[in-house]
Specification:
With 153 residues, this protein is α+β, with helices and mostly antiparallel strands. It is built from five helices and five strands; from the N terminus they run E-E-H-E-E-E-H-H-H-H. Pathway: Alkaloid degradation; nicotine degradation.
Length: 153
């Protein structure tokens, strides 16, 4: 049995049918080929699947797709405007705030949620905002610098 849901995905109105047990992460990846959000742990511990749901960062592996009904979803793919990158994406590149790239979409989306709510956070607030996103490569220093650079502009 499938449920019909309606939502906004990266600024596009969508109507979709989804199984009641399917997670939002699986729906985004399997049904819409939006593969930026990744399943790392499947338990909401690593942040690789972070997207914005109604403007707030969430672990999409923990949200059922049916719970997206009537909501606004923004993924890493929805940040850029054609070939023009979002300020955060460009700053991550400029600061070398990525290595393997696995955590990067989730990290950027967590930062995007923070800056939407608090455009001028302190370094401590940035650290708190990304604390649910694990990175094994960069040591976080360049990630924090990239986010702070955008916040200071």
């Amino acid at each position: 049995m499938k449920y019909k849901i309606s939502f906004t995905l990266n600024n596009e109105k969508i109507q979709h049918e989804v199984e009641p047990h399917k997670t939002l992460l699986k729906m985004l990846r399997e049904d819409f080929d939006l593969t930026g959000a990744k399943e790392g742990c499947g338990q909401g511990e690593c942040g690789a699947c972070t997207i914005l749901l109604d403007g707030k960062p969430v672990n999409s592996c923990l949200v059922l797709a049916v719970d997206a009904d009537g909501r606004d979803i923004l993924t890493i793919e929805g940040l850029s405007n054609g070939t023009e990158l979002d300020n955060l994406q460009a700053s991550f590149i400029t600061h070398g705030a990525l290595q393997c790239g696995y955590c990067t979409p989730g990290m950027v989306m967590a930062a995007k949620g923070l800056l939407a709510e608090n455009p001028h956070p302190t370094e401590e607030e940035v650290k708190e905002a990304i604390s649910g996103n694990l990175c094994r490569c960069t040591g976080y220093k360049k990630i924090i610098e990239a986010i702070m650079d955008v916040a200071e502009r």
